[in-house]
Write a structure and sequence with these properties.
By secondary structure, the protein is α+β, with helices and mostly antiparallel strands. 52% of the residues lie in helices and 16% in strands. The chain contains 11 helices and 6 strands. It has a 6-stranded mixed beta sheet. Helix 1 runs parallel beside helix 3, helix 3 packs across helix 7 and helix 10 packs across helix 11.
């Protein structure tokens, strides 16, 4: 196979490979590292025996991501404060597929789903991604993960039940999300406590991810009153020059906050029955660097 063809084949499948790796790992940098390692394996492989490049590449990527997931899970056990996935812009060209694949991709990379997937075992997560997001046959997944088909079916059923039971059912209408996000940002920035309380569900929660490297609550804040008072307090001490841009991130409407041209945080709302159920805030600078170039 000519070198140009080798590269073209890999690039054709890069969005799918990134999708597998990101959903398994929840971090853009880790996913990109895995895809790069997959390229090295692909470019150095004996491709005369490869009948289906996509299947071969997904198998390599899945195994590499599984190995990486086992390594990073140990680090996450000592993570400071709540953990959220690294925000992934899904409104621009790049690692996100087009067409039907893009729809499947964005539906399965929402913060709510990825947070729940974090509580799966590495094998359960791998099986869930390959089966539920990509629809691979159980036999093919078994070969990829070097497990029996019966074991893979069992893992898939357990993971599917776990995700279905624990994933919040949020509204996804983008126009309503956009309107509610704008009202939320105006109320929060304006220190409008009554306005915030009017938008929040009674049992609203705020989940802040800083990794101990930025100001954010180290525990989940629960109840509308506590969430509203926290946000109002943040508004009173916020530095001048904050800029808000509404983006599509992880398949949903989100606010990207810049300070002096540098990404400062990402805010995304989980909405149900017209009220804000969950406020997700990512402030860990290690998870925001990629947004400066996307």
């Amino acid at each position: 196979m000519p070198e140009e063809t080798v590269t073209d084949v890999f690039e054709d499948h890069r969005p799918v490979l990134f999708g597998v790796a990101y959903r398994m790992l929840g971090r853009v940098a880790d996913a990109e590292d895995v895809v790069q390692d997959a390229w090295l394996r692909w470019s150095g492989a004996d491709r005369t025996q490869v009948r289906e490049p996509r299947a071969f590449l997904v198998r390599i990527t899945s195994r590499l991501a599984l190995d990486r997931l086992r390594q990073v899970q140990a680090r996450r056990e000592s993570y400071v404060g709540p953990w959220l996935p690294e925000p992934l812009p899904t409104d621009l060209a790049g690692p996100v597929p087009d067409g039907a694949e893009r729809t499947v991709f964005t539906e399965s990379v929402t913060l709510a789903v990825l947070v729940v997937m974090e509580s799966l075992s590495p094998l359960e997560r791998a099986v869930f991604v390959l089966r539920e997001a990509f629809g691979y046959p159980y036999a093919e997944i078994a070969g990829t993960l070097e497990r029996s088909e019966a074991a893979v079916r069992q893992l898939a059923g357990r993971a599917r039940r776990h995700v279905a039971e624990r994933t919040p059912r949020y509204e996804v209408d983008p126009e309503r999300q956009r309107a509610l996000t704008a009202r939320f940002l105006a109320a929060a920035a304006g220190d409008d406590l009554p306005g915030l309380l009017d938008l929040l569900a009674a049992d609203a929660r705020l989940v802040g991810d800083s990794g101990g490297k930025a100001k954010a609550p180290l525990r989940v804040i629960e109840s509308a009153d506590k969430v509203a008072r926290f946000l109002a307090g943040v508004a009173r001490s916020a530095p001048a020059g904050l800029e808000f841009t509404v983006r599509e991130i992880n398949g949903g409407v989100a606010a990207l906050v810049h300070l002096a041209g540098v990404p400062d945080s990402v805010i995304q709302l989980g909405v149900r029955d017209g009220r804000i159920q969950t406020v997700y805030i990512v402030r860990n600078p290690d998870k925001l660097g990629a947004l400066a170039t996307r």
